[in-house]
Design brief:
The protein has about 350 residues and is α/β, with parallel strands linked by helices. Helices cover about 45% and strands about 15% of the residues. The protein has a domain at about 5-185 and about 215-245 and about 275-295: Rossmann fold (3-Layer(aba) Sandwich). Bound molecules: nicotinamide-adenine-dinucleotide (NAD) and thymidine-5'-diphospho-beta-D-xylose (TDX). The site of nicotinamide-adenine-dinucleotide (NAD) has 30 residues, from helix 1, helix 4 and strand 5.
Length: about 350
């Protein structure tokens, strides 16, 4: 594909995907990003010019979207409001960007006949019980819990409807929790790593028994490119790397890496409606498209991620204080029971 538009390309997974495209394809890449608090220009450092063009714009703005999509061969749609805790605080940007933004892009790819790939999350399926072998598949019924996951679920439904009603050439993917470089410090793993670098105790929600199915962002990128190139229109693919860990285990590994006692953390008020467990069955993607993850060893990937944050303080430091200030306000409200 000669020209690929990447929405949200200045965010965590989007920027990893832009690096992946530059390394593994000859495509010209156009990043369309609003540069919200979640974006970081430094994630695309040295990439702009040459094969990467960065456009600052809102996916809800039909004029900007139409202009960019009209010259594209494909759109890979990462842009979203992505943090559950923020969606509990103020759902409005989630409804706007995740639903209206996806709708605006779908109308544009419909008008110009452009291939579309929609990046979504396993959270659309709700959660699974702890301690069972059950996993999400492409046939699991939708049952989202939070304002974030319900808007992602709605965006998936829009894509499916545009495929069936208007013949849009789109694929969808639902991936589990990502980790790796360029992740905002509001998210669990970077928040705890940067706390530990600062000599501050990590913050664990509740007892830490909640399970997430971790995948390295590079593996997510290779899966999305595989689906973009080989996926069947209208099909959904689940992306996961068999990386189930409970939050306490992840935290224990981090504490060991930093040479701290394994009880050196604060228990803080649990997230309301906190999903218990996510787990992905990615058989379809592996069997039909031949995709395999390459970051099989989570402990190794986590150690490399710690090294990245240690050596890229200039990347995360400007976001840290504001993020922790936001968490302090949330924690106070939760403590007072007035969400
Ligand atoms: P992120 O919050 O790090 O980045 C989101 C990017 O979208 C930012 O650069 C932001 O500026 C941009 N953006 C937000 N609103 C926009 C708008 N109206 N117009 C244009 N750009 C806008 O998110 P992420 O963690 O990289 O997630 C990317 C995608 O992957 C999301 O769709 C998310 O639902 C999905 N996903 C994330 C994970 C995960 O573990 N982080 C897992 C599965 C799926
Ligand atoms: O300080 C914390 N302490 C803590 O115990 C934070 C920020 C989180 N947690 C817990 C909550 C979750 O069980 O860690 C787990 C991971 O939390 P997040 O990083 O906020 O991710 P999660 O809510 O699981 O959602 C992520 O994965 C799916 C992404 O943010 C979503 O965009 C994606 O769709």
């Amino acid at each position: 594909m000669a020209k690929i538009v990447v929405t949200g390309g200045a965010g965590f997974i989007g920027s990893n995907f832009v690096h992946h495209l530059v390394e593994h394809t000859d495509s010209h890449v156009v990043v369309l990003d609003k540069f919200t608090y979640a974006a970081n220009e430094a994630s695309l450092m040295g990439m702009s010019g040459g094969r990467v063009t960065v456009v600052r714009g809102d996916i809800c703005d039909a004029n900007v979207v139409n202009e960019i999509v009209s010259h594209a061969d494909a759109v890979v749609h990462f842009a979203a409001e992505s943090h559950n805790d923020n969606s509990l605080e103020d759902p409005s940007p989630f409804v706007r960007t995740n639903l209206v933004g996806t709708y605006t892009l779908l109308e544009a790819v419909r008008r110009y006949g452009v291939r579309f790939h929609h990046v979504s999350t396993d959270e659309v399926y709700g959660d699974l019980p702890l301690g069972t072998p059950e996993k999400f598949t492409e046939y699991t019924p939708y049952n989202p819990s939070s304002p974030y996951s319900s808007t992602k679920a709605g965006s998936d439904m829009l894509v499916r409807a545009w495929v069936r009603s208007f013949g849009v050439s789109a694929t969808l993917s639902n991936c589990s929790n990502n980790y790796g470089p360029f992740q905002h410090v509001e998210k669990f793993i970077p928040r705890q790593i940067t706390n530990l670098i600062d000599g501050v105790k990590p913050k664990l929600y509740g007892a830490g028994h909640n399970v997430r199915d971790w995948i390295h962002a590079e593996d997510h990128s290779s899966a999305v490119l595989t689906i973009l190139e080989q996926g069947t229109t209208g099909q959904t693919y689940l992306i996961g790397a068999d990386g189930e860990q409970d939050n306490l285990s992840v935290l224990t590994t981090l504490l060991e890496i930093f040479g701290r006692p394994t009880d050196w953390f604060d228990h803080v008020t649990d997230r309301p409606g906190h999903d218990l467990r996510y787990a992905i069955d990615s058989t379809r993607l592996r069997q039909e498209l031949g995709w395999e993850p390459t970051h099989g060893d989570f402990a190794e990937g986590l150690a490399a991620t710690v090294d990245w944050y240690r050596t890229h303080e200039d990347w995360w430091r400007p976001q840290k204080d504001a993020t922790e200030a936001r968490y302090r306000v949330q924690e106070t409200k939760l403590g007072e029971g007035r969400r």
